Amino acid sequence: MKYIKSSLMSLSIIFLLFTSCVTWAKDITIATFSLESLQVDSAIAIMTPIYKRIGYDMKILRFPGKRSVVEADKGTIQGELLRVKTIENDYPNLIRIPYAIGYLNVIAITCHEQPEITELSSIVNQRVGILRGVEVFDALTKNLKREVVNNIDSLFGILFSGRVDVILFPELDAQQYIKSYGIAEKVNIGRKAILKMPLYHFVHKDASNVADKLMQVMKPMQESGELDRLIEKTESAYD
After folding, report:
1. Among candidate residues 133, 131, 130, the one with its CA nearest the CA of residue 67
2. Do 94 and 211 have their domain in common?
3. Handedness of CA 26, 30, 34, 38 (dihedral sign)
4. Cβ(177)–Cβ(189) under 8 Å?
5. Does position 4 have pLDDT exceeding 90, yes or no?
6. Residue 137: its H or E element
7. 86/109 same-domain check
8. pLDDT of residue 238
9. How confident is the model at residue 237 (pLDDT cuts 50, 70, 90)?
10. 222: burial class by Cβ within 10 Å (0-12, 13-18, 19+)?
């Protein structure tokens, strides 16, 4: 009997020591675009370790176009991976974490025989192609002659077929796509972005405790420069 009690006590001590050394991470589901995107991949690489710091394993659920932010605002998903600040106006249930996790550098791409476009004002009289579900592109071209498509292949397709004069695209993804498909000689890429906007992470208001924890971790990261270095390191890995 004494042996059994001693064994049980030893097992209890071992269990307590084990559980005190292990932090059980909770899962959190975050929505984002279904499109393959280095901008999205970079944001995932940035937010995954940040979530781990506050005790969460981030799970990604992909949706087409605007549906990801719609689902996040409804609360069926706990957050939106990355969007521009202006979505706050249309999706009031989302809390913006006020520290940029990337930058959307919008570049204009034309066919190789056409002039380079490096200024936003230069697209005013052009037929413009954009991807569906990207709020920035939608806002930039709202009053212009435009064609909206669902995927990247279609975007370059309408450019090469002459249906549009110029397409707008994130710089990070454009470089990768052009390199992968060997079409550098067929396009003329603007040497500088026509627009640069910070991108932010959003959490649904029902998970405000998560938002508070993220801010507590990310504020000193921003102030020390750690967050900017992480963004630069992550994005340079895709060059």
Report:
1. 133
2. yes
3. negative
4. no
5. no
6. helix 135-140
7. no
8. 65
9. confident
10. middle
